[in-house]
Amino acid sequence: GQNIDQPTEMTATEGAIVQINCTYQTSGFNGLFWYQQHAGEAPTFLSYNVLDGLEEKGRFSSFLSRSKGYSYLLLKELQMKDSASYLCAVRDGGYGGATNKLIFGTGTLLAVQP
Amino acid sequence: KAGVTQTPRYLIKTRGQQVTLSCSPISGHRSVSWYQQTPGQGLQFLFEYFSETQRNKGNFPGRFSGRQFSNSRSEMNVSTLELGDSALYLCASSLTSDLNYGYTFGSGTRLTVV
């Protein structure tokens, strides 16, 4: 089956660092995405990992280990505006990679406190 | 450049009615995917269209259907609406050849079935 697990909620302090973990078990794999979603808004793209290792983009970094079915999103120098839901999504496998089906976890609601 | 445009933003329908939602992707994006988002289930894949062809379909009943036009605009239709169809419906477009920019989501259509 297809299963993506993330913690439901996390709390962190402004200025701190937080790591949101994601484990997945899917029948196919063609990349892993992280999205941020503020309440009532559309998900916005944060990062994409298709090979093992760390991808860094400013205050956000994402790590992937395909052999372990594991990823994390690292947020540094937390700001109040980072309070949002963070969604981990796996791009499903398919013949020749010709699929844009994303399988989402249920999301991690991050609350940043002063 | 313009983002992904979904219309209408809000919709209230009665059980048994049908509804059509529209999605205009970013210019040049040929892939359009649809998702249903509910508090309990998170984001679930409905279907994907590429060059007017349905490439993937999620585990939804046949009451959910869609199509894509030659200009890449897509519509989804839900017939015989049920209370459980109340949800945020999101569409996403992408340049499959370069996923480093991820999938761009529209603001969604909030459907309420009464």
How is the topology of this model organized?
The complex is a heterodimer of chains A (114) and B (114).
Chain A: E1 3-5, E2 9-13, E3 18-25, E4 32-37, E5 44-49, E6 53-57, E7 60-65, E8 70-75, E9 84-91, E10 102-104, E11 108-113
Parallel strand pairs in A: 2-11
Antiparallel strand pairs in A: 1-3, 3-8, 4-5, 4-9, 6-7, 7-8, 9-10, 9-11
Chain B: E1 5-7, E2 10-13, E3 19-24, E4 31-38, E5 42-50, E6 53-57, E7 64-68, E8 74-78, E9 87-94, E10 104-105, E11 109-113
Parallel strand pairs in B: 2-11
Antiparallel strand pairs in B: 1-3, 3-8, 4-5, 4-9, 5-6, 7-8, 9-10, 9-11
Brief synopsis:
The complex is a heterodimer of chains A (114) and B (114). Chain A has 114 residues and is an all-beta fold.
Task: Explain what the structure shows.
Chain A has 114 residues and is mainly beta. Helix content of chain A is 0%, strand content 54%. Chain A has strands spanning 3-5, 9-13, 18-25, 32-37, 44-49, 53-57, 60-65, 70-75, 84-91, 102-104, 108-113. In chain B, a hairpin with a 3-residue loop joins strand 4 (31-38) and strand 5 (42-50). In chain B, strands 2, 4, 5, 6, 9, 10 and 11 form a seven-stranded mixed β-sheet that branches. Chain B has a four-stranded antiparallel β-sheet with strand order 1-3-8-7, with no helix packed on it. The radius of gyration of chain B is 13 Å and the shape is globular. The N and C termini of chain B lie far apart (37 Å). The interface between A and B is medium-sized, with 27 and 27 residues.
Q: Helicity level of chain A, as a percent range? A: under 10%
**Total strand segments of chain A:** 11
Helical element count of chain A?
Answer: 0
Average of the residue pLDDT scores of chain A? 93
User: What spatial form of chain B do the alpha-carbon principal axes imply?
Assistant: globular
Number of helices of chain B: 0
End-to-end distance of chain A, in Å?
Answer: 40 Å
Structural class by helix and strand composition of chain B: mainly beta
The SSE string of chain B, one letter per element, is EEEEEEEEEEE
Residue share in β-strands of chain A = over 45%
- Output mean pLDDT of chain B: 93
Give the C-alpha Rg of chain B.
Answer: 13 Å
Radius of gyration of chain A: 14 Å
Give the helix level of chain B as a range of percent.
Answer: under 10%
Structural class designation of chain A: mainly beta
Largest sheet of chain A: 6 strands, mixed
Oligomer: heterodimer
